[in-house]
Amino acid sequence: MVSTWPASLFEKNCFSPYLGSNWLLLVYLYFLRMYQAQLHRCPWVCLSEAPVETPSCPTWFTGHPLAAAAMASAEAHLEAEALPHISDGDTNEIRAAVEKGDLRAAATKAQEILASEEQIQLHIAVTGESGSGKSSFVNAMRGLQDREEGAAELGVMETTMECSPYPHPQHSHVTVWDLPGIGAPSCTPDTYLKQVHFDRYDFFIIISSSRFTQNAATLAKEIQAQGKRFYFVRSKVDQDVSNERRLYDEEGVLKAKGKQATETRSQRYDEMAVLLRIRQDCERKLARLGIRSPQVFLVCRDDFSMKYDGPRLLKTFLDDLPSEKKLSFLQCLAITSREVLRKKKEELMKYVWLKSLASCGASAVPIPGLSAAVDIAILVTSLKEYCRTFGLSEESLQKLAEQVNKPVKELTDGIKTPLDHEITKDLVIKLLTQSIGGAAKNLPFLLKSIPTFLGPIGSLVSAAMAFPTTFFLLRNFLSDAADDAERVLQKALEGTTQKSHLWS
């Protein structure tokens, strides 16, 4: 059986020149070291119970090609702040399993953590005066047209008489709630939050299509007093912009003969000036109602996520969410800018280590020709998740094409990664074969040289390839999918007015 893991392997100073305090990388390094030890007969891997002295510094580390890649990865992706949100208890359980050399226990814990992450719920409340466009906003947040199946019901009168949940169609862990209007007869400001079950929601969006009223200001103060965030959203801004544009001729000059430009209306049409005027007017009125330093976001129903303040509003939501809920929101967020794309990639990259570890668990099966056992189902699910998160599915691409009025083929030309529906078990096995690279050449000989009665060592050496192979597969696929999503976004924005402020 394998000797006790030397304590010095986990001393901070042992790997500090490369890794700092990132102990998760030790999982990878241990299995690499087992692999290296068998190839070069390192003295601290033996078949006895007695612990063996370990060199204080891993001089073997720098010469191994996979180890060199691990160093580069550690520098680029695995700083302490780039780890997923994991409780101290879960961290200690994985650490204890790793220190005992119990890969299955560590993998099982990783699977439990990933499963619990999938259960994280995000609840967004949308409220405001009756008729302000709440239901349309709910649909826009969920990427649905107003008449599409599953959309919130619209009406000229208040149609929301109770709190109505609308889960995101692709990501059911995110729910947008359409609340009764704060001006509805059945809802009064002093009892409103109790009636709508205030504690249920992560944050509130207060909508108005004209001016914000005293009811809105009172509600905002109460939400803030109870420790939650709220956002003022001015809807139907496209209608205001259109009405203002009618006052100007085709050349953008004020139509009325002899009419002079005023402090609020220039002689030549300027859309940015119109938007600024609307925003400042809302903010001044909210300040008079007692709201300190109010911030108002201007949005419209069509192209919500790409027009006016829509992208800035979504980014603000993301920035304000606690770390454990960011991924939930990012997964359902449309890619409307390089910034959103970067944040998606950054957040998903944090979980590559856990997914790689989880794939080495009890459900791992040997892969023909690789001499490594991995859980293919976890990898298939992960790659599909990456595709959906980056909008690389037929449905998402079709919607984007309709939104920007371009053929799907024009957007998809140049995509290198498979789309969501193309991810299969056979494809993953093929990708694993490519990912294992040159290290696979030495592994069959290594495994054949291990006697059958040394099964535990064989298992660990197999893991020496399974863990890094799945890590590099997931990381590389994730990076390629992000690159493809950027290319799609660039093509979608070509020739549009949105490109200047979104493509940054």
From TrEMBL:
Gene name of the record: LOC136992156
Q: Which PANTHER family match?
A: INTERFERON-INDUCIBLE GTPASE, INTERFERON-INDUCIBLE GTPASE 5
Give me the segments passing through the membrane: 15-32, 352-380, 453-474
Q: Where is the IRG-type G domain?
A: 120-320
The record's listing under InterPro entries reads:
G_IRG_dom (IPR030385), Immunity-related_GTPase-like (IPR007743), IRG (IPR051515), P-loop_NTPase (IPR027417)
Q: Does the keyword NAD apply?
A: no
Which family would the database say this protein is a member of? Belongs to the TRAFAC class dynamin-like GTPase superfamily. IRG family.
Q: Which domain of life is it from?
A: Eukaryota
Q: Which PROSITE patterns match?
A: G_IRG
Kindly state which keywords UniProt assigns to this record, in alphabetical order. GTP-binding, Hydrolase, Membrane, Nucleotide-binding, Transmembrane, Transmembrane helix
Tell me what organism the protein belongs to: Apteryx mantelli (North Island brown kiwi)
Q: Which Pfam families match?
A: IIGP
Q: What name does this protein carry? A: Interferon-inducible GTPase 5-like isoform X2
